[in-house]
Amino acid sequence: MSRPRRFYIETWGCQMNELDSQRMAGQLMQQGILPVRAPEEADIILLNSCSVREKAEQKVYSRLGEYRLLKRDRGERGELLIGLCGCVAQQEGERALARVPDLDFVLGPARVGELQEVVAKRRAGERVVATGFPESRQYDVDAVSRHGEYKGMVTIIEGCNKNCTFCIVPKTRGPERSRPMAEILREVHHLVDYGFQEIELLGQTVNHWREPGGEEDFADLLDRVASIPGVQRLRFVTSYPRDFTPRMVEQVGRHANIAPYLHLPVQSGSDRVLRRMGRGYTRSEYLDLVSQLRRARPDLALSTDLIVGFPGETEDDFEQTLELVREVGFAVVYAFKYSPRPGTAAPRLDDAVAAEVADERLQRLFALQEKIQRGINEGLIGREFEVIVTGWGKQPGTQTGRTPCHRVIHFETGPDPVPLGGTTRVQVETAFPYSLLGRRLSVPSEVPA
Ligand code: SAH
Ligand code: F3S
Q1: Does 424 sit in the ligand 1 pocket, CB within 6 Å?
Q2: Measured in angstroms, how far is the CA atom of residue 167 from the centroid of ligand 1?
Q3: Beta strands in 62-134 (DSSP E)
Q4: pLDDT by residue (tens digit) across 92-108?
Q5: Pocket test for ligand 2, best of 167, 207, 334 (most atoms within 8 A of CB)
Q6: Would the pLDDT of 112 be above 70?
């Protein structure tokens, strides 16, 4: 088998998958294998899949089918390796190899660090299924290809022990494991040295981090990371409402570089549904946490996840979700129609909600949220933000960035564009539900040399 020289990674799903792809890219690049933008040009294709929502498995198999055709077409241009990675890899394992004869290997999320070995074994003729959750995991922080211009992601806790009745993640990412604080701090220091402006701490229940064998919890870690000089903006995702303690709220209030933006999935506004979801908090406990957070940090923007059409959700339950959405005033809502996932408890619950009913509720929720978002964003007109520049706009001479509260903002750059990852002050002039338009206030050329 010839030696692969170019790779292509397709990434679906959450930030953890994004980071896993960066880790896999890094391992390949250490071998002198280079990234390409199109699968047709690659000698190795990795599909980093997500199994959280509807039709995940079908989507994976249909994409693998397309890659198979590429392999068939390859002819004398040499061998093409195809690997299935991510949560569907963990879930499907051997089944994927059996179903897709041209698939070369299957690599689960807890085995990302073993990519090089798996590729080497394949070259030696073995079709490997590397899944499961080994006690010791390879986590080579220096091999990560961090292709984000400004954001460095750091996993602090892997897996999840919560077992919300709808969720497949504990099965695909395994039991919870916190990384030691010293390792995390070292990685953040590296990222700051490399010039990353924003640090994003990652975990399925990021605020459930605990020092392995120690006393410290996420409040202590937040304090330590936020205190590292050069951490300009600190974010963390995803917080589990029940695990958010007053000490953590206090840290969010204390450190100006902790971004005033928090993703706090509520899933439903009805206590009855929350109980059936096994979330372990009530609507009023969630609302109370929101008020504590806003007291600590009045400029805080909140986003959330909501599931619509969970088994047994009545019109009244759904109304309570709408009411909660009105009451909190989220900056962003990620809403999903419930979909039964293999091996989870919720499909066994009675009273499935008809698909048309769930669709209609989802539309009502989107319409309400759009109105709310428009209102909130219009309230930002005239405000000035320190914007981290993340990309180029569609119009010539425009750029795009993120405000500290994580909103997308477009602005005219003037004669001196800001280097990607740089910051500039922008004043909001126009507001849309999903973005802002502003005027850049600081232009480097106006600064005397
Ligand atoms: N702790 C992770 C959860 C990952 S799943 C996090 O909050 O990011 C991300 C979101 O997908 C969940 O918050 C939930 O709203 C949604 N989701 C998970 N399982 C689902 C299912 N079976 N049907 C519909 N949406 C689901
Ligand atoms: Fe899933 Fe609940 Fe964990 S949503 S990732 S089981 S916190």
Answers
A1: no
A2: 6
A3: 81-86, 105-107, 128-130
A4: 999 999 999 999 999 99
A5: 167
A6: yes
